[in-house]
Amino acid sequence: MGALVVGAILGLLGIGWLDQLMTFLATVYTRLFQLLAVPTIVLAVVTTLATFGSKGYGKIFSRTLMYTMLTTFAAAAVGALLYVLIAPGNLSADAFSQGGEAVEAPQLSYFDHILNVVPNNIVKPFLEGNVLSLLLLAFAIGIGLSKMPETENKSVVVKGLLGLQELLHLLIHGLIWALPLGIVAFSAQLSAQVSAGVVADSMGKYVLVVLGGNVIQFFIVLPLFLLARGQNPVHVLGRMMPAVMMALFTKSSAATLPVTMEAAESRLGIRKNVARFVLPICTTINMNGCAAFILVTSLFVMQNGGTPITMSTILLWLFISVISAVGNAGVPMGCYFLTLSLMSGIGAPVAVLGIILPIYTIIDMIETAENVWSDSCVATMVNHDTKEQE
What we know:
Layout: H1 2-12, H2 16-52, H3 57-86, H4 93-99, H5 110-115, H6 124-128, H7 131-147, H8 152-177, H9 179-195, H10 205-228, H11 233-250, H12 253-267, H13 272-285, H14 288-304, H15 311-325, H16 334-345, H17 351-356, H18 360-385
């Protein structure tokens, strides 16, 4: 928190060379965490399945999927309720003309995005950081190792992977030790952007719906899920705060994963086999903030295109937003480009997304923090439900 305040003050000073230095440091930290994110995902899943076997993970996976779908649906439903209550109006014609220059519709269909998940090259997913493809490979390798007979060759492979994971955790500890400096840089960068007016101009009711839904999900809905499973939300959030803060500034749940796993295991006390299995999966499929953003933004874009927003339309897009959010890439602006793809596919006025783009920095930060907080809640509940499998 001290680093957050110091960074905000430095950003407000408006010193050019200092702003450039803070931007440089923030970029370095983001790149380093992204560097560790890919091997963290793969090694966590592979070593967990190979070491503990795949038989005991049916219940863990089913609970993870159940809590993910419940929390994601709840986030989208909160967004839908706020949209109906606050009822954002349409934008002016001048705003449309400005937004059209800021965004370009993608050419890929949603089926193309799904097809890209299936790797045809074992190296390509690592180079591109394709989280879903990496999970498919990790599951295949981990389950394959668990099914192999106990031979010397298998033992060598597993020990080598465990050794790499120990080295990775050492590197993660080093980055976390230096994290306050990164928080100063991230905070200063954001403060400088706000003072320069980059994110100061908003669209009133639309922004209120999006951010209000995230705040309700973060502070009310997710704590209620924890309380229902007998967990103390204040304790869980306090222990997971380093990961939530990291997510807030990196705007990437995948890049934050090393910090999330470290905090879950060492601070919150979640069992290693649960944390290393659940959290990489949640990073990929548990997108509470994304579901709410897709729903609210899609309704807002379609409304500006002349589509009547009826209850049946809201319910249809509630379902679409939840399904679309599951599997969205845990990278900066992943939700934005996914929504852009969906709106382009139905011929909606994507120029509206160009108007949203300047304020998306703030939205993306809060959504990512909410996603990591939701990942932490899911892991906590799964850990509680599967204690007998220790």
